[in-house]
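Reader question, answered in our methods column.
A reader sent in the components of a multi-part assembly and asked whether the whole thing could be modeled at once rather than chain by chain. We filled in our standard form and ran it. Here is what they sent:
COMPLEX SIZE: two components
ENTRIES:
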Amino acid sequence: MKKYIYLMLTPALALNAYAIFYYAPLEATQGIVQKIFYVHVASAFAMYTTLIAGASLGVGYLIRRDDALDAWSVSAMEVGMLFCTIVLTTGPIWAKPMWGTWWTWDVRLTSTFFLWLICAAYFLLRKAFSGTQAKRFSAIMAVLGLLDVPIIIFAVKLWRGAHPAVLTDKAALPAEMRQVFILTIIVIQFLAWTLVTTRRSIEEKRRVH
Amino acid sequence: MDTLNYCIAGYAVFAGLILAYVLRLFYLSRSHPRK
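And here is the structure of the entire assembly that came back:
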């Protein structure tokens, strides 16, 4: 089963790349750099889903003390941190030609960076402690990350900064761009959850031995 | 086409980070299990 999922992932990514570079039209003012939008925003969605799941599973671990929940939690948190890193690197690469600067201390950017630091703290706690202490303390840190997520999502609406809102005006995105955007979200979610399940099965094997 | 380099850099970073994580998973699956 796992083999078929991996086999499906490759053509899905290839089709997505084709859709981004050949099917989606070129944006009139930004030019080709606007293509970063698809992977940047879809990665942000993958970051939200994996980190929300990771923190929720951490809460589950705190309540039930079930090691299986911790294995799922650490896997989702790790993939979440990967996508957070992607968001924080592709963002500045897109910002430089558009805003003229790599970084600005806008609320959305700062709160996303704060989320990355929480993820780093999560893994530092797992290294610093051992056994149930590591699992318990890191789960508490994951909950702090969960509290930061709504700040990132609503930052654009609450405090008007440099970062644009993505899902406020649906009519702003032409049909072809919207189709490619939705396809990219689906493919990147598929990629993220394949990575989470693979990481979880490795974690389970490492714990059994 | 001034921004083409930024576009290439963005996608290279995405692909590089995903590939690095896949390599980490490969390494973890082959490394000695945790005590």
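What stands out: The mean pLDDT of chain B is 88. Residues 4-30 of chain B form the longest helix (27 residues).
Send us your own complexes using the same form.
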